[in-house]
Amino acid sequence: MKILIGGKGKMGQLIRQTAEAEGHTVIGMADAMDLSALNAEEKADIIIDFSHRDNLDWILDYAVKNGSGIVYGTTGLTDEQKEKLLKASEHVPVFFSTNFSYGVAVLQELIRKAVPLLKDTFDMELIETHHNQKQDAPSGTAKTILEIMNPDGEFTLVYGREGMCGARKKEIGVHALRGGTEAGEHTVKFFGGSESITITHHADNRQIFVNGALKAAVFTYRQEKGLFGMKDLMEG
């Protein structure tokens, strides 16, 4: 495939190295501040972006104009930006996920099965940890997990606790830790009477996300249009 990478940071560089090692051609790396690097004569089959939401508009414009598929992993999107991404999927294939790790996809399925069995008798808490350069909190993955834990909005989300907060009510505690070079960890804890259950996914490095993104790129390349996610990739 011919791949265009959004952003020029560490993640973009790792995507480039891995893609080229797998035999793909990276035709460029660009961001909103420097679009002059784009070659108007060479069209990308796929655009992969894990950079910053400020790059979204030019990525969507390029993809729709050139018929390129999109693999999008940037988090912290506004509702308006999510709507733009959805609208673009009416014209080109868009693969969107807040996390491209296969292990995280399995984690989410485990949580999806556990919550209905435990939510009425166990207290639920979510803890996520990332490196000290991460821009958004809670992480996009944490927000996705919260949607799984609280699909109907019956629980109040409490972001950290301080002072005389009293006994917990019908709530889910959400905690974001930031430090060092932590690639990412997400933990859901279920606290019952005299017992507890902990489900954790820990990422040792960014390579797992890059590998998942390139698998998603191959999947997306085969589609005509539509919105896809990790569940589609897992189901083949």
How would you explain this protein's 3D organization?
- The chain is of the alpha/beta class and 236 residues long.
- The chain folds into two domains: 127 residues, NAD(P)-binding Rossmann-like Domain (Rossmann fold); 102 residues, Dihydrodipicolinate Reductase, domain 2, CATH 3.30.360.
- 34% of the residues lie in helices and 27% in strands.
- The strands form two sheets. It has a six-stranded parallel sheet, with helices on both faces. A five-stranded mixed sheet has the order 7-8-6-9-10, with helices on one face.
- Strand 9 and strand 10 form a beta hairpin.
- Helix 1 packs across helix 6 and helix 2 runs parallel beside helix 3.
- The radius of gyration is 19 Å and the shape is elongated.
- The two termini are 19 Å apart.
- The relative contact order is 0.17.
- The model has no long low-confidence stretch (mean pLDDT 94).
Key terms for this structure?
Dihydrodipicolinate Reductase, domain 2; Rossmann fold; 5-stranded mixed β-sheet; 11 strands; alpha/beta; 236 residues; 6-stranded parallel β-sheet
- Architecture of the largest domain in CATH? 3-Layer(aba) Sandwich
Total DSSP E strands: 11
Going by CATH, the homologous superfamily of the largest domain would be NAD(P)-binding Rossmann-like Domain
Distance between the termini: 19 Å
* CATH fold descriptor of the largest domain: Rossmann fold
Q: What would the principal axes of the Cα set say about the shape?
A: elongated
CATH class term of the largest domain:
Alpha Beta
Topology as a string of helices (H) and strands (E): EHEEHEHEHEHEEEEHEH
**Rg value:** 19 Å
